[in-house]
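## retry 2 of 3
previous attempt timed out at serialization; input unchanged, resubmitting
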Amino acid sequence: MIGDISAFVGVDWASATHYAYALDADGRKLGHRSFPHSGEGLAELANWIRTTTGHEPDRVGIGIEVPHGPVVEGLMDAGFLVHAINPKQLDRLRDRFTMAGAKDDRLDAFVLADSLRTDRKLYRFLEPMHPTVIELREWSRLTEDLSAERNRLANRFRHQLWRYFPQVLELSEDCSRPWVLDLWELIPTPAKARTVRAATVAKQLKQSKVKKWTAETLLAQLRRTPIVVAAGVAEACVAHCQLILARLRLVMEQMKTAMKQLERLCSAVAELSPTNGNAGEPCSDPEILRSMPGVGPIVLAALLSEGHDAIARRDVRALRALAGVVPVTRRSGKQYMVVMRRACPHRLRTAVYHWARVAVMRDFHSRNRYAELRKRGHSHARALRSVGSRLVGVACAMLETGELFDPNRAPQATA
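## retry succeeded, writing output
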């Protein structure tokens, strides 16, 4: 069906208006115009493509820069064959038609339509994604945003404590832990630490299930010689901390909800597979990936959502490129350079980085691989990228066979 395309349309999307350019199979112009970004505008775009090309949607190829968004989803819902291309490739293809550096929406739409007609192999055909995977991707991104917001608020809270009450910072490496927040609300200033009763602190520690500190040792820590600050500084810092804590507690509660949603959606994605781990049948993709060392709920959700297409195709090269674990080679004449791959999804790169980092601590073979690379003089990040590349290859091999991870199995090179 993809090969029977009778018309080609390039869509240059933007925030306010989208420009479409239609060509027939021989490259002759059929029409071009712009459409506003609205429900009526996108519906009018689909109707205009049908009327201008004179073909059914399943015989019209659409070229566009981004593989997601309302424009892509609207065209796919209308039945058109949507193909995506990297914006850098489109920039190079533009040089075919003008070397003067000219650029406008009409030219970009024409380049998209004509290059799809002549160089369809450069484009990636987009298939509709299951609603559960879309929801998982959104919750995965939301969890990452909440984690970053939590760290920002925790750093601000730490800075305020450093200004007037640094004794609290020595209680725990993570000053945003719930028991530290509860304790600060009980003892917000050094003056309060000198008057609070040990029984009250002991009750608070018992409620928080803290065993590292006793009431006596904790009060001895908080009653150490305080920092001398100007009048009004302590009161201002306390007011600032109270505002930060209200937001920090809300973000932490939202993170708990997000983690529960990730667990639920990962289980739902496992049920989408034709096999559900029954006797004699291969395991589902989430079960296989979860069995690997270093894969937790956040990493699993990022792999299943950001790398969904590559995992579904078992395409190890594409997944490694998306994760940014394979370098880019630049060779010209006598010059030879290998640099880190930067053009990749940031969330998937971060997920694979933490996957490799935890695997080095928990998996014997990953730890040996990391140690060998460090002995060769590679940096910590470079060594982890190499470990991540190996883990991605192992994961794709396991997905092909439907087997769970076996920590006692020797690597293929060793065997």
